[in-house]
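Example S7 (structure tokens).
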């Protein structure tokens, strides 16, 4: 059965590939699995029909027969476990790849998202200017460790995995913050991932929606 995922009808990022359906699209492309996309407006995201699929009124969702999933990490893990190409066969390596998925979402992403959002939510507050460098240092503290762990390797643990997919998508959210540029190995890591044909297909599909060329 071909799954259906939801995506923004009008993505706030204007087609930069940062919306979280990109993670799911990329995973499906890596797994060689076809999928359908249902575009959802901001108004429809908060309506009962969509909230029955995603209680928090967000995207993406994933529907496959009677199975309905939400949260991009959970969906990517489901795809990786159901299909080949995203998790190693060795049980220990598989567990480590899943651990990197959780590290991306639970450790690296929170300070990046907070820094990303603060100009929109706190710019008029008296503490704004003092808060920015504190948030940026929190990101650097995480990236210092990540950069050291990656070193000169191509991927985080052997071959490319769902752990790398999630980590790259999280790191991309820091682009434009004048932080990633100070970690050449992480910038090269992102570039390697973006050069993968599956990534390029997923990016093109999301960009087509943003530019109105998806039909």
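Recovered sequence:
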């Amino acid at each position: 059965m071909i799954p259906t995922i939801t995506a923004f009808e009008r993505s706030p990022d204007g087609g930069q590939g940062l919306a979280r359906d990109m993670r799911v699209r990329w995973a499906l492309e890596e797994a060689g699995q076809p999928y359908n996309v249902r575009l959802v407006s901001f108004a429809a995201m908060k309506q009962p029909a969509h909230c029955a699929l995603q209680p928090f009124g967000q995207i993406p969702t994933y529907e496959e027969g009677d199975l309905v999933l939400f949260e991009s990490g959970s969906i990517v893990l489901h795809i990786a476990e159901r299909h080949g190409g995203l998790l190693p066969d060795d049980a220990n390596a598989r567990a480590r790849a899943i651990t990197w998925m959780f590290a991306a979402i639970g450790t690296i992403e929170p300070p990046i998202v907070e820094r990303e959002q603060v100009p929109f939510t706190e710019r008029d507050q008296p503490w704004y200017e003092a808060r920015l460098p504190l948030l940026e240092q929190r990101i650097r503290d995480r990236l210092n460790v990540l950069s050291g762990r990656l070193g000169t390797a191509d991927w985080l643990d052997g071959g490319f995995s769902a752990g790398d997919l999630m980590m790259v998508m999280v790191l991309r959210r820091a682009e434009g913050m004048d932080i990633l540029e100070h970690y050449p190995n992480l910038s090269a890591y992102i570039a390697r991932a973006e050069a993968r044909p599956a990534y390029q297909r997923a990016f093109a599909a999301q960009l087509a929606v943003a530019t109105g060329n998806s039909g």
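Notes on this example. The radius of gyration is 17 Å.
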